[in-house]
Amino acid sequence: MRSDVNSGHQIAHVACPVKKVKMKDEDKTKEQLIEELVEIRTRVNKIEAAYTEFDGAIAKLISFEKALETMQIGVTITDLKGNILYVNSADLEMHGYSAEELKGKNVRIFAPNKNWKPLPLEQITSMKKWKRVSVNTRKDGSVFPVQLMSDVIKDADGCHICIVTTCEDITERKKMEDEIKERIEDLEKFYEASIHREVKMKELKVIINQLNEELSQYKDNAQLLSFNR
After folding, report:
1. Which pLDDT belongs to residue 199?
2. Which of 72, 68, 100, 71 is nearest to 84 (CA)?
3. Which domain holds residue 203?
4. Mean pLDDT in the chain?
5. Which residues contact 11 (CB under 8 A, 6 or more apart)?
6. Contact at 8 Å (CB) between 79 and 152?
């Protein structure tokens, strides 16, 4: 603020921002032009490097997707709440769904209601991986035994971002296991019956020996009586 001597009033002076005037190329020195050229070239190199890195990442993603699609085992990727982000062809075929039908669905769609036991987020983030045998449900409502293996995935900063779960239909394996268990049970029963039979044979042999002794004694007594006559 300043006082106007003639009028006695105070006049405010407002500082206006100084607008930076862009120099024309013809007004720049050779050194300034070279410096700007180097800066532009540096930026171009960074952009080209970013594009190269991006193309490489895309190529890797395509390769990973092709690998997942050709796997014979089911693979499902979900977020930490269980919402499906990706399902490979094997898992779709195994459960009888199309990719469109599973968009926005929760992974609990694969599990019977009585078997669904959601894990708390704290427990999920505290585990690196877990393996279990369970039962899954197909689209038509039929159930089948599966072996599931889940891995919790972290990003570069160590934050948990998703869960990758592999699913294997173990129907044939369970059938073979049941057949083997049944065969083992039959063998155990046969073994127990054999032992029981062996015990019975020993008891019978003792009885036969006793009868033979009684018969021999009877014969001896009979001969003695016959001689005395």
Report:
1. 72
2. 100
3. 171-223
4. 79
5. 1, 2, 3, 4
6. no
